Amino acid sequence: MSIDEVNMSQRELYAIVISKSDKGNKGRIVVVISGTNADVVIEVLNKVHKEKHDAVTEITLDMADSARKSIVNAVQVTDRFHVQKIALEALQDICIKHRLQAVDDENTAIYRMLKKRKNNVSNNAIF
After folding, report:
1. Segments forming the whole domain that contains residue 119
2. Which residues pair with 32 in a beta bridge?
3. Both 52 and 90 in a single domain?
């Protein structure tokens, strides 16, 4: 089972529940829920018969934990998009940190060079 949110139009969010496999087919939409409120999603999922809950072995979703509270026996898998997004944000943070450090190091080196040059000029000055 997969759960994802879809923005159909301005400010109109829906939670889509998809069965990953449907008797050999690629999958099918199980339910479309107006809004993405976790309590509403859980309420809808809890209306599914217990035998159907027990048959679900894996839930793919974003970082939300709503399905975990309803379908307790399934393994929760974070979808690839959100994993990549988190990894990219972490990489960006590291790149920014290193770039700022490189700028600081360069500025320090320039300051020291200018200070050394000023000292050399004043030591060699003829009055």
Report:
1. 80-127
2. 16
3. no
